[in-house]
Design a protein that fits this description.
Distance between the termini: 11 Å
Helix content: 25-40%
CATH topology of the largest domain: Ribosomal Protein S5, domain 2
Oligomer: single chain
Order of helices and strands: EEEHEHHHEEEHHHHHEEHEE
Bound molecules: L-homoserine
Radius of gyration: 19 Å
Number of domains: 2
CATH architecture of the largest domain: 2-Layer Sandwich
Strand content: 25-35%
CATH class of the largest domain: Alpha Beta
Amino acid sequence: MNKIKAFAPASVANVSCGFDVLGFAMSGIGDAIEIEKNDSGEITIEPIMGPGTLSTDPKKNVCGVIARAMLYKIESGAGVTIKLTKGILPGSGLGSSAASSSVTAFAINELFNKPFTQLELVQFAMLGEELASGTQHADNVAPALMGGFTAIRSYNPLDIIELPVPSELFSVVIHPKIELRTKLSRDVLKKQVTLKKAIKQWGNVAGLISGLYTDNYELIGRSLTDYIVEPIRSVLIPGFAEITQKAKESGALGCGISGSGPSIFSLCQGEQNANKVAKEIGAVASKLDLPFDIHISKISSTGAIILE
Ligand code: HSE
């Protein structure tokens, strides 16, 4: 095989209480890539299609950095040409850099006859997150590669848990069209938390995980509170209070910032409720004059896939 086309989905990270730990894959939105092998020993990135203005310098582009690290490890001497098609706007909070990073790691592994394990692919994809945001977090790249709902139990050593997803669980993600760079929304965070807040937070993580295992929608909903990160970041998101209040009034189980924002996710029981929440929060965003996109999706059990 000399050429491959692949896709990796957008994702919602943190899921309120699980900063840098929890994430799930979305359906119907993501980044696609075409990678062709050659014997130049060089990595070339062609002009990027889709929204955003990303660098095509392989040292400044997540796909280039990951391709270089993987080819170095494989010791093949081969080069690659990369054509990336963005379906996700960078700085949206929908795991844009993670989708590009994951699809690159996945596609190169396939193209070179699968020399790496899935855990190693997550580690390569984390290099992209480091370039984009300054830290190697895996809460977006794990679901973008593996699909479903994942938890990073440990970073060192990397230990990822695949969680079950209740069959009626839907996500509604509203993306107010402003750009919020992950690096900025990480820089504003405090480096220390009080024991009182930490206790509340890990109680919610336990509740959310338990709710996923037992199909307990009400427990999932009442666990979706972030006492640590959201109070600091939400001020960066116009309409956050109004949108989350309306989502809850419309029957969402709970809601919060998607990744580092500005997108806001809601979890809902059933498609009908998801549609209702989407309609109501869309009306709020329109009233506030906020340009937006809305994505309603089941949590995708599929992560990165081959397209051709
Ligand atoms: N956990 C990350 C953050 C996700 O909130 O900064 C965004 O990439």
